[in-house]
Amino acid sequence: MKPRSSRPVLVFFSAVSVLLWAGCNSSTYVVKVDAMAKHDNPGAAEAQSYKIQSKGLALGDDSLREKEAAEFVKTALSGKGMYEAPSAETADMIVELDYGLGTPRTKIESVSVPVYAQVGGGVRYEQVPVTSPKGITSMRTVSVYDPPRTELIGYDDIPREVTVYEKYLRITARDNKPAAEGRPPTEIWRIQTSTEDESKDLRKYLPIIASASVEYIGKDSTAAETVKIHVPSPTVDFIKKGMGDDQSTVAVDDKAHPKI
Questions:
Q1: What is the pLDDT at residue 74?
Q2: CA 194 to CA 102: how far, in whole Å?
């Protein structure tokens, strides 16, 4: 990288580089989605009603996060015309939830950092008129100091060690029928969504990763895919609002999230 001026410059990395995106009105999250659907199950297409269970947690758990996670998933399912059955006995399927934080891991990532330089400045000389007490005017050479100015001269990529946390949500739909010969009920479809960054705020990320699951409900991705979730967005707002007065009638656009 070459500076704009041939003069010696003092180059430094800005300490505020981590705030480059501060003040922006939106954020973008990268979410991995892996979906599977068993199309050979004759009852899969007709399964519309459900009851929710949380893996490893008792039904009726009173934790705020438990209730929020269930509400986000109910809203996502409503976007595909599915609804909660009045009882477990009358539901077409049981929808299991599993969510949490993965084991933290350390990785090296490249960070683009702005590079600034102090340019200009120094001493220059000017001729100025000076009048003596006798009224005689003459020209005198005086020195004038100009302070240097700071300019952005480019960007450098520097390595940075960071600790990242996976935030995940797994949704599994099973036939609401008794298990046969000790085997669990037949799986109809399942979705796993996750995102990974430095944040440990699972509560913040649950509606974001839940929104990524909407267009994959009952579908098969054939392989893991990556989508970008922009916040704010209509789909994330739909998930956050939950099952309000008219939420069950809101349609969710299958093309709301661009794939990477």
A1: 93
A2: 10
